[in-house]
Design goal:
By secondary structure, the protein is an alpha/beta fold. The protein has a six-stranded mixed beta sheet with strand order 2-3-1-4-5-6, sandwiched between helices. It is built from eight helices and six strands; from the N terminus they run E-H-E-E-E-H-E-H-H-E-H-H-H-H.
């Protein structure tokens, strides 16, 4: 099997590290060699955060270069557009349609770009867009956007839902487990 590459991108504090940990656990349990690399960037200041998840029969490097990603999971529209050059031709971006204004937009130094979904699609990117925030709120917490997106990502794999939920149970505190399961299932069914 060729090595497959998934990037998880977002803004600091959105839960991308938990999402990559969850995906890594599912893939390991599925018998793959897995490498996960975390790049934090300016995460504590609302900056860009990216994690790489590479899996296959044998994976030698944790880093994904431009043009290598099979999938990008993006917690925010601008982050999706920022990282699309890392997709393979015909690659897919799963994107939350939520907008989080970066500091230049907040200060008025720049405007938030319009038409990002359309621009990505025009560039040949398969765009799987959803309002993950609304589903996370339906599950009980706006902070569960990451699990909604992981539910959506699960549709691109052949693992049973139980494998994902088992990995989730190993990854989150018990008091948040039911809410996170609900968010995952809502994302998978959306």
């Amino acid at each position: 099997m060729d090595t497959k590459n998934v990037m998880i991108v977002g803004v600091g504090g959105q839960g991308s590290l938990l999402a990559s940990k969850l995906l890594g656990k599912v893939l390991l349990a599925g018998g793959y060699d897995v490498k996960v690399s975390e790049v934090h960037g300016m995460s504590q200041r609302g900056g860009s955060v990216v994690t790489y998840v590479r899996f296959g029969e044998k994976v030698f490097s944790p880093v994904i270069d431009r043009g290598q990603a099979d999938l990008i999971v993006s917690f925010e529209l601008l982050e999706a557009a920022r990282w699309t050059e890392y997709l393979k031709p015909g690659g897919t971006v799963i994107v939350n349609t939520q907008r989080i204004d970066p500091m230049p937009v907040i200060t008025g130094a720049a405007a938030y770009p319009q038409g990002l979904e359309e621009a990505m699609a025009a560039a040949g990117v398969r765009v799987d867009a959803m309002d993950a925030l609304a589903l996370a709120e339906q599950a009980g917490s706006a902070k569960a956007v990451n699990l909604v997106l992981m539910g959506r990502l699960s549709r691109y794999f052949d693992f049973p839902q139980e494998a994902w939920l088992q990995a989730l149970a190993q990854s989150v505190p018990e008091k948040f487990l039911e809410m996170n399961k609900k968010a995952f299932v809502l994302g998978a069914q959306a």
